[in-house]
Amino acid sequence: MKKVFLLCGLIFFHLVASFSQERFRKSPPFPEPLQPLQLPAIESVRLGNGLTVAVAYQKNLPFISLELLVLAGESSSPESSPGLATFTAGMLSRGTQLISALEMEERIESIGGSFSATTSLDYSRFSFFFLDENLDQALELLSLMLLQPAFADKEIVNLKRTEYYDILQKQRDPDYVSKRQLLRILFKSHPYQKSLYNEDVIKNISKDDILTFFGKYYRPNNSVLVLAGNLNLPTASRKVSHYLNMWQKKELDRPLPPPPGPNNIERVCFVDLPQAKDATLVIGNVIFPLADPDFFPFSVLNQVLGGTLNSRLLMNLRESKEYAYFAFSEIELFRSCGVYFVTAKVTPSVCFASVQEILKELERMAKEKVSTSELEQAKSYLIGNFPLQLHRLDDLARRISEIVAFSLGEEHWNKFYENIMLVDFGKVFEVAEKYLLPKPVVIIVGDKNSLFDHLRDFEKLEIYDAKGVYRYALTKGVEK
Amino acid sequence: MSKNILVVWSFVLLVLLGFSALPDEEAGFPFPLTQYQLKNGLKVIISEDYSLPLVSVVLAYHVGSIYEQPGKTGLAYLLENMMFMGSLNIGPMQHISYINRIGGEPNASTTEDITYFYETVPSNQLALVLWLESDRMKSLEINAAKAEKAKQTLLDEIGQRKAGEPYFESSQAFDRLLYPEFAYSHPILGGEEDIRNLTAEDVKNFYTSYYIPNNSVLSIVGNVNLTKTKELVEKYFETIPQGKEVPLFLPPKPLEKKQVVQVFQESLAPAPAFHLGYRIAPPYSPDYYSLVILDYILLKERSSRLYKRLIKKESLAFYLSGGIEKRKDVAAFKIFAMNNNDAMVDICQKAIFSEINKLKTNYVSAAELQKAKNMFKKDYVNRFSTPLEKALFLAETSFSPVSLENAPQELGKYLRVTPFEIIGNINRYFTAENSILLNVKIR
């Protein structure tokens, strides 16, 4: 009885407290009207040697963010030398014929700069961030790298060691291993497959390979240079032209490989990664390429499915079923095709059930229309988050470099808000049917010893080792 | 301006001078801002930045691990987590959900001295953020069940850090040697035994002592209208009652000068390693500025003297990190290196001492000094590159001895450092009697 009185008392005090507080504290305020997005204009010019130079004017900071995209990614590596595009890009800042690698590093830092190289499937990107008072010195350094690279034997050995250990290190990461396995299956006979190499290919790369690759692809007419900061196009193009006019163009063929077809058969693959604590799941399939108008409705779909903490996947697998530590979905788009994938980390005992739930959520997207609140929330997220992806100078320059290099145009820039706002139920449903109905590939990564007992419910299971080499298949848990 | 707001002082920095009036070296800051105080003591800083339709809000409480008492460590970090577990009008984890739905990004962090809560959202959603932040400042719900859940989360995090960071325990042991006073030496995460013994009452006491308007700064930077923003701040924060005066924090005692050399057996260490530290001048004292530039010459960046010699040229270490660390009123210069074997540890330490000795006896060249200053300037000005970073900078500076009024002169102090100051201060602070060395052996 005492407890009842106590409870009534508590409720009474709570009610008094909530009635006595200001009314506006009880519920969230309504937002003001959305402010228009006015992004800096992207101005570009093509220099005499074919180099495209683009500028985005940003006045507030004493920095320049320079992005050079050379349109030679891992898909351009020869069949015999996977990894060559990444390796060549990594060598660019490692010394010229007159300046050692150490001295180059010293000169970059002397101008308050940082320089990095990354290679994706379609291009190699060089990001150079420096104090704007040093634009001339930065362009001079860039021209030395492009016009007089040394590719010294000593530096090749150093980079081979670094790359080798980097790949070994990454191969201990279940997220890396699972995604690599998914892409290996989806890109089976496509040029993108070359990006998914193991550490052993590094030792085969020779100086001649690098010189040939560099000579073929590192050409101004195969590159885009973007400068973001306090400068205008006439100044930028004059200075770039001054330092890079000796960079000679050469005609080259850059065919667009046809996209791989989507997977449409049931495939469940297990990668044995000893000592992995949990089960890492990656489930995905091939979708549309960069610049495809399906990007906008599919982005909305992705938000509803697994883009945020409020999305269906996390609500189901983590909040409702308590299977997963996390469950999200993402999209990655390339020149030839794109990929959607769901990632989740789950406890081994619920591995099978988690895969079934993810597949159900994918099917539900393709069979039922999303609700009004889901649609509006997803659009509100994408519109609200878009400027956040551009608020750093280097992010801005990076985005512009892709827009220019792949001719994405205003649709992905000043018309982004509009394009998202125009997405309706019908368009989301249409892309869901188109891309989510084909059966996705399921990858499970974990330690065989702790996970195997929980995989017997899968009808058929392909078993791979940590390097992704196929070993054998199981049918209902029995080796065939 | 509303009558309800007691404007203690309000002014516009910067533009007061105009960029053109500033030497080039100080460009980037100041930027326009307005600063005032509500009658409950909350300091408010507003800076308009129209580059994108975004606004960042930072609510910073002047409290961190150094304000914890012996036996009650971990409270500051625990409370940071509990601030997401619901207040009178906002359910558990709803704070993140509200921000996430509109495409915003919420976060929080605890340092030794300050606890920050921050969000970047579309600028039309400023009111939502102020509603959320004011609710948890006014009426956080703290009960035994929530405290237990937060304690378990914190203990799990410590467990994961111990298992995943092989030098976790030796780092903590090193801090105890480097900072002899309890306030500065204990980790932000707290001690496991202390955390287990914390009660909901402890959390409540900490909350009511420090999470109060008169111990806080609200910093708003973005595409906002000044008048409207002031009205919103008034609406959501003015009626939150002022708290009691915050407990007195005693300044550190002068340190005894004595060299310490010890060995630590680390069970998870994959390789022998060592922590080397020097106690240096307090943050923002006259000597401090040249020591920061010295950090860039000696250790920061890939072309620094130690990185070049130990990693690139002589391969004496395969991992090197460190630099100046400041904990409110005290600062130290830390070096951590991992080596292939015990013999290499010894050679590596000798190489470090030899590099320090070179700096003690030879002036740094003008080119090397300029390189260090350029790298410093890049890092310093980069703190104004987004609305969020500006808002964090403004909140931190308003709590620091520098103060916002003097902030525009700060960059110049670093950029005017001379080779004479560097040679003087490396001789003054990088001495054997100021040093702590902890050799980490594989158990």
Put simply, the count of helices of chain B is: 17
| Largest sheet, strands/sense/barrel of chain A | 8 strands, mixed
Query: According to CATH, what is the topology of the largest domain in chain B?
Result: Cytochrome Bc1 Complex, Chain A, domain 1
Largest sheet: number of strands, sense, barrel closure of chain B: 7 strands, mixed
Shape, per Cα inertia axes of chain B: globular
Order of helices and strands of chain A: HEEEHHEEHHHHEHEEHHEEHHHHHEHEEE
Computed structural class of chain B: alpha+beta
Assign the CATH superfamily of the largest domain in chain A. Answer: Metalloenzyme, LuxS/M16 peptidase-like
Overall number of domains of chain B? 2
Which strand order spans the largest sheet of chain B, edge to edge or round the barrel? 1-2-3-7-4-6-5
Low-confidence stretches of chain A: none
Ends distance of chain B: 66 Å
Topology:
The complex is a heterodimer of chains A (480) and B (443).
Chain A: H1 2-20, E1 43-46, E2 52-57, E3 63-70, H2 84-91, H3 101-110, E4 114-119, E5 124-131, H4 135-147, H5 153-170, H6 174-186, H7 207-217, E6 223-229, H8 233-244, E7 267-272, E8 279-287, H9 295-307, H10 312-320, E9 324-333, E10 338-346, H11 351-367, H12 372-385, H13 393-405, H14 416-421, H15 425-436, E11 441-446, H16 448-451, E12 460-464, E13 470-475, E14 478-479
Helix pairs in contact in A: 2-7, 4-8, 9-12, 9-15, 10-11, 11-15
Chain B: E1 12-13, E2 33-37, E3 43-48, E4 54-61, H1 75-82, H2 94-101, E5 105-110, E6 115-122, H3 126-139, H4 144-164, H5 168-178, H6 182-185, H7 192-197, H8 200-210, E7 216-222, H9 226-237, E8 260-266, E9 273-280, H10 288-298, H11 305-313, E10 319-327, E11 330-338, H12 342-361, H13 366-381, H14 387-399, H15 403-406, H16 410-415, H17 419-429, E12 435-442
Parallel strand pairs in B: 3-7, 8-12
Antiparallel strand pairs in B: 1-2, 2-3, 4-6, 4-7, 5-6, 9-11, 9-12, 10-11
